Amino acid sequence: MKETISRNLRIKKTLKHNLQTYSFLLPNLILFTACSLYPVVWTLKYVFYQYGGYGTGKPIFVGIANLARVFRDKVYWESVLHTFTYGFGKVLIIIPLAFFLAFLLNQQKRGNGVTQSIMFLPTIMSSAVMGLVFYLLFNAYNGEVNKYLLESGIISRPVNWLGKDHAMKTLILTAVWGGVGNYMVYFIAGIQQISEDAIESARIDGAGKLQTIWYIIVPMLGPILKIIMMLAITSAFNDITNVMVLTEGGPNNATMVMSLYGYRYFFPISAAEATVPQYGYGAAVSVVSAAIAGVVTVIYLKVSKKLDDIY
Amino acid sequence: MTEAYAQNKKMKKVHLSDKARVALISKWVFLGIMIVFTLYPVIYTVLGSFKTNAELTQGGGFFPSVWHFENYYKAFIQADFTKYTLNSVVVSISVTILAVTTTSLAGFVMARKDFAGKKILLALYMSMMFVSLGSVTLYPIYELLRALKINKTIFALVIALTGGQATNVFLVMGFTKGIPKELDEAAIIDGCSIYGVYSRIILPLSKPILAVVALFSFRNAWNDYITSLIMTISIPKLQTLTVAVVQLKYSVNSAAEWHIMLAGASIAIIPILIVYMFSNKQFIAGLTAGAVKG
Description:
The structure holds 2 protein chains of 2 kinds.
Chain A: H1 2-46, E1 49-50, E2 60-61, H2 65-72, H3 74-105, H4 112-120, H5 127-137, H6 144-151, H7 167-193, H8 196-204, H9 209-238, H10 241-246, H11 258-263, H12 279-310
Antiparallel strand pairs in A: 1-2
Helix pairs in contact in A: 2-12, 3-7, 3-9, 4-7, 7-9, 8-9, 9-12
Chain B: H1 2-48, H2 53-57, H3 70-78, H4 81-112, H5 118-130, H6 138-147, H7 154-162, H8 166-177, H9 181-189, H10 194-205, H11 207-223, H12 226-231, H13 241-247, H14 258-291
Helix pairs in contact in B: 3-14, 4-7, 4-8, 4-11, 9-10, 11-14, 13-14
């Protein structure tokens, strides 16, 4: 008798305790369910449906037809290729540049702090607004970039920076502008975790600056370098705003990346474009794109682990 | 002998400092180029916002020949940027408050309490950090908000912009775990309830990490384009600054409105520049707290 009472009490107590706990959790849980969980479940479901949106009739179950269409969609696979070009270009420029900046700026010397703050500045600005500014700067006929290059005699005719041949390079350049400060800060945090003694003793042993970088700093950065690279790769896959504003994926899909390709089946890319939404197909494109990004990440992790073993 | 040694040493010193000087000069030449590369687009935007359209498109000096402050008048009054600025301010502040309060509460119990379903919840939060379907998820969010009949209000935008906050919850959780548990226990012995422990112990002590969450939430909300675009697609009067600025690109006479575009762009970037001037140390420290340690 006494035992049951105490057990009931205990249950009551844990129940009360749990209720209190959930009351703390609830506000975030609502947001998380509505904005993270539900959309993912929705998208996974609609991969198998044909759906034109609110007010266009009921979604029709089509099985794997959407996925099959993704694999046949030539423009999509071109956009995957563009994503890789963009991602590799961005990472290959941004990582060494950010590392070099961090190497030059990590010590507390005069001017270093201010320069760090300046290099980090683009990170806090809207990539959409700056995309518009770059659109004006790189404009073929009236842009400042061509004006300066013509005046200094580097080019003799205006270059169409946003045209078919150069749009991807311009896009990568602006992405480097927006991102290098971010990775510089990561690298500075990493370099500052390396003990001064190791660097100092290398110097005493007669290692030059380059040798110190290559034989001491890079290997000791190992684990952090791995994380930074992974952040750079995954973020390059997700970049969409800058592409959308600067080139709109054009001209003629030359800068169409896979994130934007999925988007265009849901929403118009620009105000000038009228699209008929195909939510089911868009969902399939997005899921395949997420899978590709996932596979690349896994391959990267495997390869970087192999590299660890070599060291 | 000693004289020669001293002379040799002296020469060596001069030689070394020469080398150091070359290194220093080349360092700052390189950094100078990087600084110009970084600052140029910003300076172009701000200076350009005072020029005439002809100066911008047909080639003018670096500085405006006459400072046309009326560009801002046109942007604020004729292009309705007063309204969009107000929207941006209200939305960004609301998102910041919502993000900080919800992640603070959730991070606290996730760090300190055991409850039914905790493991599953943590796994779900973790997995959502890695699954990225991108902006297409805005559509189901929009439909959900329509079903709740709030899609035509500013709440829709605030909710969508705040989002799931999984990363920030983990950030706050990690920080809270670093606060000694003995403090909680002492407070409980002194008669504090769970609410008391939170409001008197954890909340004041987790201010540094909440500042990071606030700073980054504000930045993201202020700078966001796509979410704000989608959530205001049927209610243009709720557009934020970034959306309104980029839409100028598609206006009928956009070729004649570069100066207005740049004035709008300046209105969009100057507030965040001012925030940055006062908090650049926190921004930079916060970034590493979030990424490398988290």
